[in-house]
Amino acid sequence: xxxxxxxxxxxxxxxxxxxxxxxxxxxxxxxxxxxxxxxxxxxxxxxxxxxxxxxxxxxxxxxxxxxxxxxxxxxxxxxxxxxxxxxxxxxxxxxxxxxxxxxxxxxxxxxxxxxxxxxxxxxxxxxxxxxxxxxxxxxxxxxxxxxxxxxxxxxxxxxxxxxxxxxxxxxxxxxxxxxxxxxxxxxxxxxxxxxxxxxxxxxxxxxxxxxxxxxxxxxxxxxxxxxxxxxxxxxxxxxxxxx
Length: 243
Prior knowledge:
- By secondary structure, this protein is of the alpha/beta class.
- It has a single domain (about 1-240), classed as Beta-carbonic Anhydrase, Chain A (3-Layer(aba) Sandwich), CATH 3.40.1050.
- It is about 50% helix and about 10% strand.
- It contains 12 helices and 5 strands.
- The chain has helices spanning about 1-10, 20-25, 40-45, 50-65, 70-80, 100, 120-135, 150-155, 165-170, 170-175, 190-210, 210-220, and strands at about 85-90, 110-115, 140-145, 225-230, 235-240.
- The protein is globular.
């Protein structure tokens, strides 16, 4: 659990070096019930790579049904005075893909911007810039998922009110996906391939359209990565996308 590790770092703050605190956080796999929100010191004790490692471990716990216990009411109450999330996620609205649960996270751990097809626009980018430049988040994760309805709709050229314009933003991923075989929405192998391409193009779009985030990444302050969630297995695969 991300916050369990951060709480461990906070406890070590007065008697350990940064690297020792990070090691303690990463090694800490069994903790008491989490009942307090993140502090700036706890979050800042871990690097972007550390945070990604913890997120991966959280997903592994989810898949095994071994999530760490937490008191959500206590988290809510302790986070009321302020927030220090460690990451910002861009995920799909699909009800089967709640990122905080999939990664064993709690209240105050991450910002999560959800929109069909995990696409970007000025509002999403502005939210990410706030999260990273002003609020101190260290990781940007763009997470797609298998069997995505928005991807299927874009492949099929679906038309419906404002949804039409949203699906048009996914069309470049449909066209850019190299696939030999049935390129229809009925072929879930193709749908999933487009979903992955869509994540990759979204990351490129973040870097191209947000100098704020691009500069933070080049400076090593943040890391921007992609992820794919398999709704059949519960597994989240993280992967780097080259700058």
